[in-house]
Amino acid sequence: MKPYVIAFANQKGGVGKTTSAVNIASIIAEMGKKVVLLDCDPQGNSTSGLGQNKKKLRESMYDALTDGLGPDKCVVQTRYDNLWLVPATMALAGAEIELADASGREKRLRDFVEKLDGYDIAIIDCPPSLGMLTVNGLTAADGVVIPMQCEYYALEGLTQLMISIKKVKQLYNPDLTITGILITMHNGRLNLSSQVLSEIKKYYSDKLFSTVIPRNVTLSEAPGYGEPINHYDRHSKGAAAYREVAEELLKRCPV
Ligand SMILES: Nc1ncnc2c1ncn2[C@@H]1O[C@H](COP(=O)(O)OP(=O)(O)OP(=O)(O)O)[C@@H](O)[C@H]1O
Ligand SMILES: [Mg+2]
Predict the structure, then answer these.
(1) Which residue segments constitute the domains of the chain, with CATH numbers given?
(2) Per residue in 104-131, pLDDT tens?
(3) Which atom from ligand 1 is nearest to the alpha carbon of 238?
(4) Strands 35-39 vs 83-86: parallel, antiparallel or unpaired
(5) 64, pLDDT greater than 90
(6) Banded pLDDT at 34 (limits 50, 70, 90)
C-alpha cells in the first residue's frame, strides 16, 4: 500500500527544508515507522545529509522521473534502521528541462509513490523553486510542511507558496492539505523574529506547529558528518526540538 506522503516545500532557499526533512525522517524512523526520504533537489543535500556518496550512486530520482524506473531500482537502504532513500544527484537538474514538454509531467513522482509498498511514510525534500520538481512534489503529496524563517520577506514568500499550492490542488491533486508551517532557525532574542512570528500567528495560527526550531549550531554541523541530528548528537537542543515536531507531525497525519 502507498505510504502517507509529506512534501517539505518552500520556494525560498535556505529556510531549513532539507534539515527538517532529513531530521524528521530519521526521528520518525527511530520511533519505529518505516520511512523513505525522496530527494527531489538536484543539490542532493538530503542524499549527502544521510551519508550517501553521490559518486557511487547508480539509479536516482532522475531515473524515476524521466524513465519511470520503479522503487525496486531507485530506493537505497541507508545505514539507519527503518530509513530508506531515493537519492538525487546533479543529473536531476536535467529532469526539469526534459520534463518540460513530456506527457503527464506533473504526475511522474505521483506515479512513483503509488508503486511504493511497505513504507508507512514518504518524505519529499523539494528544491528552492516553484518549478516542475516542486510541482511534482506537491502533486505526489498528501500533505505539505512549510519550513520558514522569521524574517522580513518570509510572509511574502508564504503568500506566493499558498497560491501555488492552491493551483496544484485545483489542477492535479484535490486532496492536498497543509500539514503545518514550521518555524526554523528561530532566535527569540531578535525583535524582528518575534514580530514576524506574531504576524504569522495572526494569519495561520491553526497551521503553525507549536514547536519552534531554534538556531542551533549542532544542526548545521551534522550534515558534514552525513548524520541526522538524532545520531550525531541526540542530546542537542536541535534534536529535542525536532523530536517534538516529529510527534506533532504524527498526530496530524494518519500514519
Ligand atoms: N535550526 C538551525 N540552526 C542552525 N543552522 C541551521 C538550522 N536549520 C538549518 N540550518 C543551516 O542553514 C542552512 C540552510 O538549511 P537547509 O539546507 O536545511 O535549507 P533548505 O531550505 O533545504 O535550503 P535549499 O533551499 O538550498 O534547499 C544549512 O547550512 C543548514 O545547516
Ligand atoms: Mg534543501
Answers:
(1) 4-252 (3.40.50.300)
(2) 999 999 999 999 999 999 999 999 999 9
(3) 1
(4) parallel
(5) yes
(6) very high
* Å from CA of 45 to ligand 1 middle: 10
**Choice from 12, 18, 90 to test ligand 1 binding pocket (greatest atom count within 8 A of CB):** 18
Report pLDDT digits (tens) over 126-182. 999 999 999 999 999 999 999 999 988 888 899 999 999 999 999 999 999 999 999
Residue 61's pLDDT is 98
Distances (CA, A) of 21 to 56, 104, 193: 23, 26, 22
Tally of CB atoms within 10 A around 103: 7
